[in-house]
């Protein structure tokens, strides 16, 4: 949590509310601000304000050769695990600051969680969003109870305006960071997973720049059972955490921060506390491709009826991509941390994932423009049990013989084998058929 207000002591006041212990542990030698006792205190304090989400056995287990349990944090009220850290953070503030109010400046899951829980705690809350913010996000934030102000064309404009308002009015400016309070709240996920799944071998978390969930939960899990493997997953396009761990400090010059599709996973590495905890306690960090994330989103939608975003699906993507072969036959929990996929992205993601999964294909061929020729084509498609999604006919710009028509079909198939069968059947009847490669 970053603070910009007239009272710079507020962070230390919040931290002083966490019980301190004189006993030293391997964790405290890594980071003196967060211990297992801190996470336990957070779990007790937020238990009535956030959901104890289910961690359920998944039907995907047989497909990937291991016992997979999905921790469904996307079922939180605002669709994100960030609620845990935010609620503990807000309840730890001094009462005089709670009366004055808080202010945030982004359209992230963190801001949505602040908007909701501050309103529930009767703390005045202001959210500054740029004019380019999705109208649906603005509407949702207002419905949570926040005063939403549109300002500036970029996130930086909004942040500057929010800091100015904080200074002028005594609001507490909150920006997601890795304070002990926030990490302790996020670490309660690790506690719950340990309680819900006996004899765990590994737990997989989303990583990337904002690795507070990974770091805080690792602190809880490693205290309870040092033999549980804790694994982080980030995007190959934005290996922020791996680069930061290699450099030994947070990487600040990433030109690819805040990628729209990946959300917080692509953000800058936001603090040395999380980085130190990750380096000390996390067993492995792997990177996955965008294609694997999309297929992971498709698997969750089909098998779990869960509509999640890239941040929520990226943990499972490591299993989809075969990045963790050592987990075969093991009991593995995967944290599905976010379900805030914007509607305009949903259709694009599903369509692309179906293509990547070899379940949507497209071909073109030239037919004689005579009655019955297209019906013969449709008979072949019906015989092969492929579903016709779209068909287009082009007559004016065909470069072949006169009185011919170019037909382009988009088909849905069961899997890669079914697609190959369809292709062979068509090529047997139409040798010049051209297939569009994905």
Automatic annotation (TrEMBL):
Its cofactor is pyridoxal 5'-phosphate. It comes from the Eukaryota. Keywords: Lyase, Pyridoxal phosphate. The keyword Acetylation does not apply. One of its GO terms (biological process) is L-threonine catabolic process. Transmembrane segments: none annotated. Gene3D superfamilies: 3.40.50.1100. One of its GO terms (molecular function) is L-serine ammonia-lyase activity. Signal peptide: none annotated. Residues 362-438 form the ACT domain. SUPFAM superfamilies: Tryptophan synthase beta subunit-like PLP-dependent enzymes. InterPro entries: ACT_dom, ACT_ThrD-II-like, Ser/Thr_Dehydratase, TrpB-like_PALP, TrpB-like_PALP_sf. This is L-serine deaminase.
């Amino acid at each position: 949590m970053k603070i910009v207000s007239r009272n710079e002591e507020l962070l230390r006041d919040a931290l002083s509310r966490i019980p301190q212990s004189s006993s030293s542990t391997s964790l405290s030698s890594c980071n003196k601000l967060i211990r297992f006792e801190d996470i336990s205190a957070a779990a007790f304090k937020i238990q009535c304000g956030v959901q104890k989400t289910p961690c359920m056995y998944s039907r995907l287990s047989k497909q990937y050769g291991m016992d997979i349990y999905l921790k469904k944090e996307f079922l939180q009220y605002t669709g994100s695990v960030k609620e845990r850290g935010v609620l503990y953070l807000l309840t730890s503030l001094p009462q005089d600051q709670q009366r004055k109010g808080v202010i945030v400046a982004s359209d992230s899951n963190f801001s949505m969680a602040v908007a909701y829980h501050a309103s529930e705690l009767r703390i005045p809350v202001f959210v500054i969003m740029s004019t380019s913010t999705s109208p649906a996000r603005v509407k949702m934030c207002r419905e949570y109870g926040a005063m939403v102000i549109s300002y500036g064309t970029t996130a930086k404009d909004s942040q500057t305006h929010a800091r100015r308002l904080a200074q002028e009015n005594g609001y507490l400016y909150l920006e997601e960071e890795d304070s002990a309070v926030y990490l302790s709240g996020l670490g309660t996920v690790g506690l719950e997973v340990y309680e819900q799944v006996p004899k765990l071998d590994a737990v997989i978390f989303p990583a990337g720049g904002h690795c507070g969930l990974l770091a805080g939960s690792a602190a809880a899990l490693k205290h309870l059972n040092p033999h549980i493997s804790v694994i982080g997953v980030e995007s190959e396009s934005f290996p922020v955490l791996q680069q930061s761990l290699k450099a030994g400090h947070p990487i600040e010059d990433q030109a690819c921060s805040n990628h729209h599709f990946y959300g917080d996973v692509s953000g800058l590495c936001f603090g040395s506390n999380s980085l130190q905890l990750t380096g000390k306690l996390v067993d492995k960090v792997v990177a996955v491709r965008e294609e694997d994330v999309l297929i992971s989103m498709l698997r969750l939608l089909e098998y779990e009826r869960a509509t999640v975003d890239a941040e929520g699906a990226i943990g499972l993507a490591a299993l989809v991509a075969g990045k963790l072969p050592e987990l075969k036959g093991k009991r593995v929990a995967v944290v599905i941390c976010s379900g805030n996929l914007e509607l305009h992205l949903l259709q694009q993601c599903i369509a692309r994932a179906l293509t990547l999964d070899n379940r949507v294909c497209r071909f073109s061929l030239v037919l004689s423009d005579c009655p019955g020729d297209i019906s013969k084509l449709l008979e072949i498609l019906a015989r092969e049990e492929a579903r016709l999604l779209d068909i287009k006919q082009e007559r004016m710009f065909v470069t072949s013989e006169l009185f011919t028509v170019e037909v382009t079909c988009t088909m849905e198939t069961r899997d890669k084998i079914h697609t190959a069968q369809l292709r062979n059947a068509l090529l047997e009847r139409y040798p010049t058929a051209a297939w569009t490669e994905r």
